[in-house]
Amino acid sequence: MSLPVAYLLIAQPLNARIKIDIERKSGDIDSLLYGNFTEHLGRCIYGGIYDPASPQADAFGFRKDVMEAATQLNTSILRWPGGNFVSGYNWMDGIGPITQRPKKKELAWNTVEPNLVGTDEFLQYAERLHTRPYIPVNLGTGSLDDARNWVEYCNSDTGTYYANLRAKNGRITPYKVKYWGLGNEMDGWWQMGAKNAEDYGKYALQAAKLMKWVDPEIKLTVCGLSFWSSGTAEWNRTVLSHLKEYADYISLHYYFGDRTNNYLEYMASMKEPENEIKQTEAVINEVRFKYKIEKPIYIAFDEYNVWYRTGVEEKLEEKYNLQDALAIAVFLNSLIRNAHIVKMANIAQLVNVIAPMMITNGQLWKQSIYYPLQLFASHCYGSSINAFVVSDTFNTDKYKGVPYLDVSSSYNALAQTLVINVVNRHPVKSIQTVIENQYGTLDKKGVAYEIYSTGLKDENSVSEQKVKINEKQFTVNSKNIDYTFPPHSFTQLVIKIK
Ligand code: AHR
Prior knowledge:
By secondary structure, the protein is an alpha/beta fold.
């Protein structure tokens, strides 16, 4: 029987080349790239990380299974309490005896906030999770006093009013929260107390000044323009011009997805968040040169994820499939490629709400997007390596000349480990790739972690893990690695190099 020509064409793999040289370092990878975010929204805090009625609850009411899964993600920094929520949040409502805390109307997500989890609960949770807390203050409805007093409550030695209040609430030693944000998405109409760039810049400058006067050790993130608005460069230029002396980071938010139900268009559109990084880096440089600012200003990509299917009615409980996992892998590749300027990133969010893990009928399970996050956070440390890639390309209506292979690489000198992250975006073809190593000697064998499933729309559930990590060994041919990347897959190659 002879096979139809169309079948033979599909079955024929493509070829590609990747050149790796560990001397071609492009930046240091900050472990804060592997951060997460928990907002008072839907089932993220209540019924997610915190659920005292669950058999999974620890002595403090926090779910042990969520902590375990977050630990496996090496969650390096945890943003809290919002998001949009923070722009109406009075942190004083969330401290002191639980029974005396007010239940308040919550306007960001149109709910009632019970204030059972507040500053002390969250910061002690972060300590038990061995992660760094990252708190954006309320620059929407909040005052300058609210902002500086929150820093005092968390970070000052006792002897002053708010530090003494913390001690009275059971915590004498300051938490020393290092990372703080100057509001959340302050440009957007949906934000309580939204402002234009001038007004935000001026107000955030005063908040920044007072917060750093309370604790000069803190690091501050300025709100960059949010994903939902347009004109990133203008907003960012204006706010950085005001805040250049105080900004340690400027934030980016990006939510991507298969909005046109077109897989290749979706994959190609993943260059957009990287374009945002490049554009923001250009503005940072412009402002630093103009005002002769010596200290660095980095990017904190403090909200990103796939989000396009669900709204508030569905409590943002997005279900992810294989192509979403590939999108996340491409996004993480772009963070590694830009590790010189992006020094923090927080996937939104940790559990249930646009999240890598879900709780269904009391049981935790992992979504497809959990696995690329876990692989990057397990292995990609040290230096980002500039990989040279030759790959066939594809065109979509909007994007031209997009390479099928999306690649990043890292080299950890301490662990003498080379990591090569490859997303093969081709929907049906494998890509036979020669990876040429330019410097040092590779071990004879390495480990390949593959995320692949037959259907692009395959997803996981409480009862089945269709999309997960498959681990195998690969061997080295003199100084090259010959590896065939399956269609629509993410592969991470990890190998020792001396
Ligand atoms: O992560 C969900 C929401 O998305 C956040 O509250 C907000 O900052 C963003 O628009």
